[in-house]
Amino acid sequence: MSEATSNHAYGIGMIALLVGMSASIVFYTSFYLPESLLRPSVSEHILHPEEMLTIDIVEGALTEGNENYVPNKATAVLTQNNHVVWVNHDSTGHTVTPSHRYTDSYSGSFDSDGVILPGESYEFIFTEEHEPIDYFCIPHPWMTGTIGVERSRF
Ligand SMILES: [Cu+2]
User: Fold this and answer.
1) Which CATH number characterizes residue 52's domain?
2) How many domains does the chain have?
3) Who is most buried in 11, 69, 118, 126, counting CB within 10 A?
4) Burial of 150 from C-beta contacts in 10 A (0-12 / 13-18 / 19+)
5) What is the pLDDT of residue 137?
6) From the CA of 136, how far away is ligand 1's center (Å)?
């Protein structure tokens, strides 16, 4: 009798263990995994490059014919200066708006989303190599610039 009871208890224990394991697998694949796959893993050297690349929106940028985004055709290099900041030194608000929607798989949508007020800035971390992206200012569409992203050669 004792042997039968212990076999029975062992069977229940095994079933409980299997149920627990399958519950963990279901949880892992349906909740944990999709969450962690949402953002790709990006090298720390890309997330924290050596320098930032500053693009100045210069004073007087709103006037057609004046310089606006300086440097106007900029190139960021991954791990070196792919964290880009647009600083508005002008006395009016400006935007940084891509001509064609651009989404970085880590940082999301590239777009200042509304105006950058005087004295304020817009930052974006580019994590992927890309040919020059055209961008402009919504209130002053003659203000245009490009930002390209290259892979480091070292
Ligand atoms: Cu503007």
Assistant:
1) 2.60.40.420
2) 2
3) 126
4) middle
5) 98
6) 8
